[in-house]
Amino acid sequence: MKSLDRQSEPEAPGTVPEEAADWLFRLKENPDDRELAESFQTWLGLDPAHERAWNRTLKAWKGLDPLAAGKTDTRISSHGQSRPAGAQPAVRRILPARKTAAACLAVAACLLLLLAPVWLLRLQADHYTGAGEIRTVRLEDGSTVTLAGASAIRTEMEGNPRRVVLLSGEAFFDVAHMPDRPFIVTAADLNVVVLGTEFNVRRGRETTSVALLNGSVQAHASNDLSQRFTLKPGQALNLQNADGTAQTLDVDPAGIAAWREHRLVVSNQSVASVAEQLGRYQSGWVTIPDRELASMRVTGVYDLSDPERALRTLVAPFGGQSHEITGYVHVLTR
């Protein structure tokens, strides 16, 4: 299952190549699914960047042809259309052994960087969840981590300090108190240092944040060690990913990690940010072609048990609508 931390603005760095790779695998697995093909064509036409990413992805995939030695037929055209079932694969030239080995290395690197970011993330993660899944894991030190939908972490519990890297999504931490072994959570450029406490960390496209429920944490940007923030219960720190600016604010403790009870509580967040979070609880992608709509600010509580309804509620105050296209694409418009 794919990681859906990428859902929202189509222009977000790295997300379009991931979507293009996912489309390739979906189309290969379901070459005769007309609804899927129509959804793909819709996605392809939403943004010129989609077609560029698709062409790059297809070109990289076709680089596998010499290695397939006639055994693999992608059956996918440059526009995502399937070949007829009886069509013959293109004639392939068998490369000399050394050239084949070099080609294998080149194509493998290309696939890792371009075609399989989700699979690569899974390889890096020790624990992860799929879309809509909420799961609690117990670490070797006795700490627990509850993962939100489409989230992933890597753990390093043997050393001192203890470390967890939030690779994608959102997680709530209940850290076992060990005065001689600090616990550090890293998410993008944000570092959170604790001894024993309960807090939530979210890695979003616009903002990486930590919100404290109990205890005390110290947070700082990895590239600015001079500015450290000590949070008290009911406080949060938002780090802007674009420029590294940080801001502390008071939050309602009842809203911290409310997603564990299938409620998303947001305060003065952009529509794009909220859509990204809602997108982790359903299959497919959420896209907002209207950038003005994506930048609107909202405050509210959304039901994660019905994410499609939550998307409609999100954009309704702005005269917006959510259009679901065969379950694969959710387009928010006005």
UniProtKB/TrEMBL annotation:
Q: Does the keyword Transmembrane helix apply?
A: yes
Bilayer-spanning residue ranges: 101-121
Gene3D superfamilies per the UniProt record, alphabetical: 2.60.120.1440
**Domain FecR protein per the UniProt entry, residue ranges:** 127-218
Which GO molecular function, any one, fits this protein according to its record? sigma factor antagonist activity
Q: Where is the FecR N-terminal domain?
A: 18-56
Disordered: annotated span: 1-20
Q: What is this protein called?
A: FecR family protein
Q: Which species does the entry assign this protein to?
A: Roseibium aggregatum
Lineage here is:
Bacteria, Pseudomonadati, Pseudomonadota, Alphaproteobacteria, Hyphomicrobiales
